[in-house]
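Final report, closing paragraph on structural work. Over the funding period we assembled a curated collection of sequence-structure pairs, and we close with a single example.
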Amino acid sequence: MATETVSARPSGGWISALNTRHHRTALNLYMLIVLGHWAEHIAQAIQIYVLGWPLSEARGVLGLPFPWLVTSEWMHYGYALLMLIGLILLRHGFTGRSRTWWNISLGIQVWHHFEHLLLLSQAISGYHLLGRPTVTSIIQLLVPRVELHLFYNTLVFIPMVVAMVLHRRPRASERSLMRCTCAVAHQW
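Its predicted structure, as stored:
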């Protein structure tokens, strides 16, 4: 009769690993991507409102040498999808208050993703919302696109940062539920 060896490693594959032993690294990489994107929106806003550049020339930092980045609905949709996937995949590593704030960010990103899906579908089909001359999102009917996307990214970013701060500094009850090593050691 053969004896089976049971592995002490938790099951769940790469998603489990992403939310346990690799959670801190994954969050840091994700935040680097988010900050890079957010910096592009801020650079574009500075180009428009501080430097007085016309909207057609205000393309952020990467958009200056690569103008298609600003006009590509595929690129914008891809980033919105990447944000959504990251928020979903990394969610399982959060507990307590940090999970609540992460979920708020996720909820806002679901809407933001929907708006980009709407923009992409208009770009592909050639049919624009309410017969507009260009692709238009729902909230863009009220707020210009540059300001809207800076606002959306801010709305997603703030609860994400709150979640990460609370995740790094959990209460004792939250720390006991954590399966990752993201929490900083007590300093008192």
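The two ends are 55 Å apart (CA to CA). DSSP finds seven helices and no strands in the chain. We thank the funder for supporting this effort.
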